[in-house]
Amino acid sequence: MKVGLLLFLLAYSITSNAVVLQGDSRHQVLSPTDPKAEKVGLLVVWNNDELSKKSGCSAANISSKYIITAAHCVIDPKTAKQYDNIVYYPKHVSQLTRSPSRVFIKKAYVHSDYLEANKKQISDSNAGSNAYTTSMVENNIAILEAFSDYSQKHVGTMYGWFDIAAVDDYLNNSNIVDVFLRSYPGEKDYGTLWYEACLMKKDSDFTFVSCDTDPGTSGAAVTVMGEKDWQIIGVYSASDTIRITNNVALITPKIRLALKAIFNGTNENGSVFTKLNISTEPFYNFYIENKCYKDIKVALRLQKTDNSWETYESYQIRLNQRTLPAPDSNNTIYYYYATTHDGTQWWGDKENGITKYAFGEERPFYRKVVPKNRPIRWGDYYRQVSCD
User: Fold this and answer.
1) How high does pLDDT run on average in the chain?
2) Which pTM does this prediction carry?
3) What burial letters (b/e) apply to 166-202, b meaning 16+ CB within 10 Å?
4) Which of 59, 164, 343, 382 shows a CA-CA span of 20 to 30 A to 267?
5) Are strands 245-250 and 27-28 parallel, antiparallel or unpaired?
6) How far apart are CA 323 and CA 98, in angstroms?
7) Helix locations, 226-364, DSSP H
8) Are 333 and 366 in contact (CB under 8 A)?
9) Rounded Cα gap, residues 354 and 352, in angstroms
């Protein structure tokens, strides 16, 4: 199912932070082994009563335990309430080359001024209005604890992280700074990672940024090259439909100190960020991977999170490819049947499996169970099929 992307467009001019100065200069990151994919990931959010309205944002690792994104990727701007489910996919570059793990977010810190401004915006206007205030754009920052239940490690420990720098260390009223975005823009194929070099300039009122953006870029880290490595000086916040500008929530010295307090575990009563508990419901994604030199087709049967069972057919699975994503499941049991396109070999279980309709007739499906020889961990599970 194609996921819709967050639309966070301003209905009027904002006098803080960021303008498009050039044409499309992005190029796609094609492999998770590319260093540009190492410290970033795709963030997907949704509410339990709106499963068909999942939204995508960009995020980046900023410590061994935490990632950074935009506050509106955590808080539904139409209601000022936190989303029910937030899932992080680190090193995700495309649907065919997916993230190596899932991170089900349970804890978040959102800029307190953003929360107050969002509530005030709703009370001052009709619910669901797209008129976002200056304070919402300037403070559009959230920090999420990213512990991977599947790997039993925090995401920064697995894949590294960007250092945080105060924007004042790089940008003042007279200079132009090279900045870089790694994001998941909405007008590109869903879930594809794109890299872009931009220019950033500040004058007395706001900051100009020459990045090409689209909904889905929200939450992307605005990075600079420091003396030794990349550093983050801001978060892509929103676009202004009147001026066609890019707005960035900047990492001020005060925010940088607040982030360090979160990293050190001393922000429980902090005034800059408010702690939130997220009730994300974990799930599995099941796949079949082809290790046969012939193309195969696969029928995968699973129980969806709404408790209904359904069979999903995938065709033309080539060598070393997996089936396309099926809906999320929280059942440890799943079934599959596979066959080569020429019909010379098939994979199923006539004795201990089940018989279900697939590819035009009844087929014997394998019955598989997520291993229980260790604590159940959520994330990807897949079987490999090989030719004789």
Assistant:
1) 84
2) 0.83
3) bbeebbeeeeebebbbbbbbbebebbbbbbbebebbb
4) 59
5) unpaired
6) 11
7) 253-263
8) no
9) 7
